[in-house]
Specification:
This protein has one domain. β3 and β4 form a beta hairpin. The termini are far apart. The protein is built from 2 helices and 9 strands, in the order αβββββββββα. With about 140 residues, it is α+β, with helices and mostly antiparallel strands. Bound molecules: zinc ion.
Length: about 140
């Protein structure tokens, strides 16, 4: 069986690039979580258009997630969702990407490690969809589009 020699390198590069992008997204999210968020933020052309954030808790793939749903109360519309970073199920601390050469995630409190695949796009998508489902169950009359 002969595989072109460049294919694994391309996959590796794509994997590294994807991880860097995810890490940056998660870092931005983690930093925004630390700062105090106002309950409602006025945006748009006029001050009447208000958006709000709603956070839920989901346990999936053996970790905790705290996805955020951004919505417009006046338009009764879901605007966007963010899956957030995975959290340790034991400590509820945000996991970080391992820095010791091992691929994957690690809990800063209890040092438990988790597989790199924890934050695959398919899982993040599943978390976002679950968050919207939770939101719609608790906010009758809201729509996603
Ligand atoms: Zn932990």
């Amino acid at each position: 069986m002969t595989l072109p020699a460049h294919v694994p390198a391309v996959w590796l590069a794509a994997s590294v690039a994807a991880n860097v992008i995810l890490f940056l997204l998660f870092t931005v999210f983690a930093l925004s979580r630390k700062s105090e968020r106002p309950a409602a933020v006025a945006v748009g052309r006029d001050a009447e258009e208000v958006i709000d954030n709603w956070e839920t808790r989901i346990e999936r793939v053996d970790v905790l997630w705290f996805p955020t749903v951004t919505f417009s109360p006046s338009a009764k519309r879901v605007l966007k969702t963010a899956p957030g970073v995975p959290h340790c199920k034991n400590c509820a601390r945000a996991l970080s990407l391992s820095k010791d050469g091992n691929k994957g995630w690690v809990c800063p409190a209890c040092s438990q490690s988790f597989p790199e695949t924890l934050a695959d796009v398919s899982i993040l998508d599943m978390i976002s969809k679950q968050a919207v489902k939770h939101f719609l169950e608790r906010h009758p009359g809201f729509q996603t589009k």
